[in-house]
Design a protein that fits this description.
single chain, 185 residues, mainly alpha, 0% strand
């Protein structure tokens, strides 16, 4: 008697198919299993947490409405979900762009950038952080940048570096401890 074990990808595809049949329990489970990743996608694109929180709700409305358009086998189910989130986020960015005004109006807008003093301080702090990142092994430093600057999930980083998820968590935790020690020294 052999039991066939479903992969996470097959499970997500099944949940999407059940959503097409208007199965609310499947939709709830799909949300629980994928919302963190899709929120990361929207946050990475929009760079504003409250806007990303609002966008993720709209993304799931689209997923509910368009779940019948997903064709298993054409793309991975998570790729399809990420494409919905990405496209929605890009639509928000496009809508955010203001209509071009006269150049003279733009000249009257004050510079919102940091003062020269603050810019110098920021540059010094950035240099210190880069120096401390340089004390880490290159793959650990890249993983820290990926997790905390680029918004990649632990799972994505573990896959990128071909290490188990718990190993990635350990890398990041130990790297942050080392960075804190370096920055406070």
């Amino acid at each position: 008697m052999s039991t066939t074990q479903t992969t996470p990808s097959q499970e997500i595809a099944d949940l999407i198919s059940r959503c097409a049949l208007r199965d609310r329990a499947a939709f709830r489970t799909l949300y629980e299993r994928t919302s963190a990743k899709l929120f990361g996608v929207t946050l990475r694109i929009l760079r504003d947490r409250s806007e990303a929180e609002e966008a993720i709700q709209e993304v799931y409305v689209k997923i509910w409405q368009r779940s019948d358009r997903y064709v298993a086998g054409n793309t991975s189910p998570i790729s399809w979900l990420v494409a919905v989130a990405r496209n929605h986020s890009l639509d928000i960015l496009r809508a955010r762009r203001p209509v071009s005004d006269d150049i003279d109006v733009a000249l009257e807008i004050p510079d919102a950038g940091p003062s020269p003093e603050r810019a110098a301080q920021d540059s010094e702090e950035k240099g210190q952080i880069e120096k401390c990142l340089g004390t880490l092994e290159p793959d650990r430093a890249d993983a820290v940048r990926g997790a905390y600057l680029d918004g990649y999930s632990y799972e994505e980083l573990a896959s990128r570096y071909a290490v188990p998820l718990n190993t990635m968590r350990t890398w990041l935790r130990r790297s942050l401890i080392k960075l804190k020690e370096c920055l406070t020294a």
